[in-house]
Amino acid sequence: MQTAWQDVNYAFRTLARTPGFSCVAIVTLALGIGANTAIFSVAYAVLLAPLPYANSSALVALHETLPPKSEEPARQRMPLTPPTTRDWAAATSFSNMAPYADQEFILTGAGEPERLRGASVGWSFFDTMGTAPFSGRLLNRNDDGPDRPRVAIIGHELWRTRFGANPALVGTAIELSGQRYEVVGIGQPGFAFPSASQLWVPLSLPEEEFADDQRLSFYLDAVARLKPGVNIDRAKAELNQIVDQLAAQHPKQYDRRGANVVSLKESIVGDVRRALTLLMATVGCVLLIACVNVANLLIGRAAAREGEIATRAALGASGGRILRQLLTESLVLAMAGSAGGVLLALWARDAIVKLTPASVPRLADVSINMWVLGFALLLTAFTALAFGLAPAVLTTRRALTDSIVAGRKGAVASSRRPWRSAMVIAQLALSLALLTGAGLLVKTFWKLTSVAPGFDSTDVMTMEVVLPRAKYPEPTQRALFFARVVEILESNPQVTAAGGATNLPLSNTNMTFGFYREGMAPGKEAPFAANVRGVTSGYFRALGIPLLRGRGLLPTDREGSPPVVVINEAMRRKFWRDQEPIGQRISITRGRTTIWREIVGIVGDVRHSGLGNEPDPEIYMPYAHDPFMFLRIAVRSNAGPEALAGAMRAAVWAVDPGQPVSRVRPMSEVVASSLASERFNTVMIGSFALLALILAAVGLYGVIAYSVTLRLHEFGVRLALGADRRHILGLVLRQGLTLSGFGLALGLGLAYLLTRLIETQLYQTTRTDPATLGFVACVLLAIALVASYLPGRRAARVDPIWALRE
């Protein structure tokens, strides 16, 4: 222990004598460790941390599967139908199973009306999740059923913020969406499943929902708890046996359907795993480059210490003793860099979380906790070995053989130049691969922002209104409510157009229905499919969607008027091609109702499912013909969209003072949020790739500069013998560009392999895009030229007289 302390003490004194070297090494390591720690804090919270439920590894999510339209082997995950949940509940693989459905509620009577996210859940939901009440009780079998008294469970956060943590709330009644519910319990702190729910009510489905004609009504999700000793594969096999039995009984409804069982964590994480894994790999490359830089610094520093080390060897120090001392110095450097990295991660974590798309789950749990600090400690040990072992071994070996005999400064370093050159080539190759990936993502993002969405988002403000079914049970009531809101908005002198739709563009929310063209035989032929949107007459003008032919929807297209629709150009191209669809009829089936509707107009294509996706066939119906419980309203202003936020809320409250309004935001923000994932990937990978390039440039500069230091005597003699200074500069530049050329060649091959990881994220760009590869190569060569020119200029300016005197 005393010897170890002596090594640590000596390491501090040695590093303190070279503050410039120590600062550069510590800052380099802090950047690499800090970037890795910050990204790991996000990855741990999202991907690795167990769910905050009892024995969460036994929780699974259940889905039905259907063959995709392309008829590929992969299957699409679908929600469950009510009859399926009852059939699957008989599975012996589960100790509990509970269906649920996301639901939004309007809380009134306790301050300003508030729209809340919640869920309707089966009575065994809380037992399945393994949670207990914080206060009161949770749901039981007696709460389930359409004829049972309405009860609700309030989330702990909602109880604290909205009700002031009032312990007397349990047993009292609250009003949700126009109906009274008795609060029977308060949930545990932190429990908010599913989808950040703040309250839960019984699902209470009527018996007719379980009839055979509802076996195609996919709207329920389900969570289950595996019995001890049962794994996911066994549960999946059992459910598929049940599906096969159902297919024999109901061949039409269960044609090629299947069952899927995944861990609940995997279901929540979804596609985020791939993006975070890619980021972890990127920052891992940055750390490797940082380690190579510090290793090069240590090799260069060894030349100044070769006399000291050789003397210690001559006085009897063993190779192991010298090696341990050098590794201790590396460990001290790594610990200092780790401390700086953790401080950097504390700042970077908040910045990364703010930039991360809101769709990424569990962001609220991101913190620098003990697991993250443990990861930083492992990085410290890794980096100490990664950058310290090779220099220490080489230095020790040389010291024990011929450092004293060599008798000249620089012999050690000169013998190790091939190692340094190889490490710089590796740095440049990694940097080129990362820059190529970043360049492809930047080009993809630029192309996406250049895509015409099919509408004009300038000066448009939007809001969302969801009506309570208990208060507006009749379709005519809902249609009248929104007609009056739009009428009030259109009377505002700052409004040039106002309209509403069931779903706004780029919301990636579609309602797909089957339809038949006139002349087809329903029941004998398979229906076509298209997205259906209910819109008001002013919607197309409010969003600037062009009318191509025919007429748009009119205010007179209301209840009782002839059923009409407007289609988009993509639908005309796909289903009518060279024919004229205007004047023809289509039938749209919703539930058990089929209505024939005349096509009266064609509008331009709008990208509803993302800027990177081609427009789907769309059918626009008059909202008044089939009024939903919700509507997204868009208002175009001649005074800027922000000026209308208050007026839009006032228009709703003028019709119903108790009706909450949500998601009041400019349409430009909707467009920007649709690119949140692409923006996050581009900024993150681009930033780390730029950091890697800077570190690689510093490493190249260090190698060339040190090589020039070793050869100053040689360059002086050359100049004294008549060599031109430009020739000396050319020698140095040739060395730097040679290293860069090898790094470029290796980097292009590495980029070809690594860019396969992001190929699915590219839009109108191939992973071998010549323009991107050429630009990145030119940037790398330009930086290499600068990094080589500075030491080269120093070599060209050496004084020949000084060299001759030496």
Folded structure, characterized:
It is a single chain. This protein has 22 helices and 22 strands. It has 806 residues and is an alpha+beta fold. Among the domains are: 68-255, no CATH class; 468-658, no CATH class. β7 and β8 (179-186) form a beta hairpin. α8 (272-314) runs antiparallel to α13, α14 (475-490) packs across α17 (645-655) and α19 (676-720) runs parallel beside α21 (770-796). The protein is elongated and about 105 Å long.
Q: Which structural category fits the helices and strands?
A: alpha+beta
Mean pLDDT: 83
- Straight-line N-to-C gap: 46 Å
> Which stretches are poorly predicted, pLDDT < 50 over at least 5 residues?
69-74, 402-416
Q: How does the major sheet shape up?
A: 6 strands, mixed, barrel
Number of helices: 22
| Strand count | 22
For the largest beta sheet, what order do the strands appear in spatially?
3-4-9-6-8-7
Tell the overall outline: elongated
Task: Considering the chains and any ligands shown, give keywords for the structure.
22 strands; elongated; single chain; 6-stranded mixed β-barrel; alpha+beta; 806 residues
Blueprint (SSEs and pairs):
Blueprint: H1 2-16, H2 19-48, E1 59-66, E2 76-78, H3 82-88, E3 94-108, E4 114-121, H4 125-129, E5 135-136, E6 151-154, H5 156-161, E7 173-176, E8 179-186, E9 199-202, E10 221-226, H6 232-249, E11 258-263, H7 264-269, H8 272-314, H9 319-355, H10 370-399, H11 403-406, H12 411-415, H13 417-449, E12 460-466, H14 475-490, E13 495-501, E14 512-517, E15 528-535, H15 539-543, E16 547-550, E17 564-568, H16 569-575, E18 585-590, E19 593-603, E20 618-622, E21 630-637, H17 645-655, E22 662-666, H18 667-673, H19 676-720, H20 725-754, H21 770-796, H22 800-805
Parallel strand pairs: 4-9, 6-8, 15-20, 17-19
Antiparallel strand pairs: 1-2, 1-10, 1-11, 3-4, 3-7, 3-10, 5-8, 6-9, 7-8, 12-21, 12-22, 13-21, 14-15, 14-18, 16-19, 17-20, 18-19
